[in-house]
Specification:
Rossmann fold, Helix Hairpins, 2 domains, 319 residues, 11 helices, binds 1,4-dihydronicotinamide adenine dinucleotide, single chain, eight-stranded mixed sheet, 43% helix, globular, alpha/beta
Length: 319
């Protein structure tokens, strides 16, 4: 099998002036893509701006023989970022939503500004860039989108409630875009990286920090964005030269009543709680239809007459 190339493709990478975004931009540039290196060039907390971060990465791509242009807009003005791609290269094929800031505070101390700024860059910014690119992807019957989430979103992390909420919001956004884009060959996946960068330099232990090179994650993101990759709507975690897929799983659950005419008491819930929360036969559901279907099956079994008490415990909704 040959090398995976991006010749003729135009790739927009947001927040590409440093860290992970820089590594993505350099890799795409080395594989034949024309790259829009977007970066506001501000501080870690969303303060200030400068053209130097994006310019340095554009220079690096050009020095290596690649093609790139800088864009200094905030992702909050997503349509301007996409316009830079169209004005310079006439098309856009891949959008990597990577720009990010942190404003860490314990939950009780988060100000409206800490909340709003983090949501603006991560969630609103990804919405704006993607909404600007989406009609173009639709028209050409091809598009690849990456959203950047975080383990802080998936699992929570002390001091990052604002960031966690925005990062989990991106999972929801990606899940629906993946469904709406599928018939036009538009794929949207989520990357959950862990990498050494200015966002993590004072968070990660020093020995781990040295092993977490952004260059080890970039190939995973590039593969997800290749035309030959069929992955869509997935959450892919990657770090230190490793990658794996994350899914939300649900327990088998338990019926809380035995007859359709019965109500459910608080005590019924207490008595079945161990079964409700037992993850021993947990499984992943592929769609909202599957989740609703499972509920219908449980209703049908109640309607069709009787569910014996012992069956309540072992009933598998999805069969
Ligand atoms: P970084 O700080 O090195 O890079 C982020 C870049 O985004 C910066 O160059 C910054 O100037 C740019 N940026 C910030 N606000 C912007 C805006 N409004 N418009 C355009 N550009 C903007 O950070 P890093 O670590 O490379 O992070 C990249 C992404 O990965 C972020 O979304 C971050 O939340 C996410 N992430 C990183 C992890 C890590 O371990 N480094 C862990 C989980 C998620």
């Amino acid at each position: 099998m040959g090398d995976l190339r991006f010749d003729g493709r135009v790739v927009v990478v947001t927040g590409a002036g440093a860290g992970l975004g820089r590594a993505y931009a350099l890799l795409f540039g080395s594989r034949g893509a024309k790259v829009v290196v977007n970066d506001l060039g501000g501080g870690r907390h969303g303060d200030g701006k400068s053209s130097s971060a994006a310019d340095a990465v554009v220079e690096e791509i050009k020095r290596n023989g690649g093609t790139a242009v800088a864009d200094y807009n905030s992702v909050v003005d997503g349509e301007k970022v996409i316009k830079t791609a169209l004005d310079n290269f006439g098309r856009v094929d891949v959008l990597i939503n990577n720009a990010g800031i942190l404003r860490d505070k314990s939950f009780a101390r988060i100000s409206d500004q800490d909340w709003d700024l983090v949501h603006a860059v991560h969630l609103k910014g990804s919405f704006k860039t993607t909404q600007a690119a989406f009609p173009i992807f639709k028209k050409q019957g091809y598009g690849r989108i990456i959203m950047t989430s975080s383990n802080s979103g998936l699992y929570g992390n002390f001091g990052q409630a604002n960031y966690s909420a925005a990062k989990m919001g991106l999972v929801g956004l990606a899940s629906t875009i993946a469904i709406e884009g599928a018939k036009n060959n538009i794929h949207c996946n989520v990357i959950v990286p862990t990498a050494a960068s200015r966002l993590t330099e004072d968070i990660l232990p020093p020995d781990l920090y040295a092993e977490l090179k952004p260059e080890l994650i970039a190939p995973v993101v590039a593969y997800l964005c290749h035309e030959s990759c069929t992955e869509n709507g997935s959450i892919i975690e990657s770090a230190a030269g490793w990658a794996g897929k994350c899914q939300i799983i649900r327990s088998n659950g338990s019926l809380l009543r035995t007859k359709i005419t019965d109500g459910v008491s608080v005590e019924n819930v207490r008595d079945k709680w161990q079964k409700v929360t037992s993850m021993s036969n947990a499984e992943h559901l592929d769609s909202i239809q599957e989740a609703t279907g499972a509920l219908m099956t449980s209703l049908d079994s109640l309607r069709s007459g009787e569910v014996k008490d012992e069956e309540v415990d072992v009933y598998n909704f999805t069969q």
